[in-house]
Amino acid sequence: MTYAVTLTREALEDLRRLEDFLVEAALQYGDLELPQRAMAEIESQLRILRTNPFTCRVAADRPYERELVIPFGGSGYVALFEVVSDHEVVVTALRHQREDDYH
Question: In the structure, what pLDDT confidence band is assigned to residue 101 with cuts at 50, 70 and 90?
């Protein structure tokens, strides 16, 4: 079974915010390819949701709301998503693992 993966407006805003942070970090640390590598890894890991969304950990007590852990460097990112039908997964939020306001 294949799922269509869509991102909410809020999730897209999260991606932009994360990319802005990565650009600042790249300039600060002189690693100008950091944003490209991180965004490529996030995109790559989100592809897992096309075929295996139920392999991700359950978020809270709702079996269809799940979290995809995206390792990157010493920490990584977490994508909150919901399986909304037999054919669709909706990503609702993306955060760095060290952020406090995830849910």
Answer: low
